[in-house]
Write a structure and sequence with these properties.
Blueprint (H helix, E strand, L loop, with lengths): L6 H12 L5 E6 L2 E6 L2 E7 L2 E5 L2 H10 L3 E3 L11 E5 L10 H13 L6
Antiparallel strand pairs: 1-2, 2-3, 3-4, 4-6, 5-6
Length: about 120
């Protein structure tokens, strides 16, 4: 799936959507444009989609109920079951997923840090 939107414009449109959410910041991590809340990543741009961290049950339901949601595999590497990827040809379409982004932000903000 290719997009007519250049990558920088795509990132700018996603930035505009996510950076207006309270407490969200952006930075690069492992070559991906990532979005953080409380210094924890909740979303990132990967390929033609946006990866999003949600509770496992929500992530699984979305993969079965929506044809544009797939397991999140940045650079072909499998990630945890909490991560999904939403693919949209046009970045402006992510506005339709605002509720999911907000749910992800709240989930990550409330999550306990992993024990070492």
């Amino acid at each position: 799936m290719s997009s007519n939107t250049p990558e920088s414009s795509r990132k700018a449109q996603i930035d505009a959507l996510l950076l207006k959410l309270p407490g969200v910041s952006a930075r690069k991590i492992n070559g991906l444009d990532a979005y953080f809340v409380s210094d924890k990543m909740f979303a990132c741009i990967s390929g033609d989609g946006v990866g999003l961290r949600l509770p496992i049950t929500t992530a699984t339901e979305l993969q079965f109920s929506r044809d544009n949601v797939v397991p999140f595999q940045p650079g072909g590497m499998a990630s945890s079951r909490e991560w999904i990827q939403i693919n949209r040809a046009e970045a402006a379409e992510y506005e339709k997923d605002l509720q999911l982004f907000q749910a992800s932000l709240e989930f990550v903000k409330a999550a306990r840090p992993p024990r070492s």
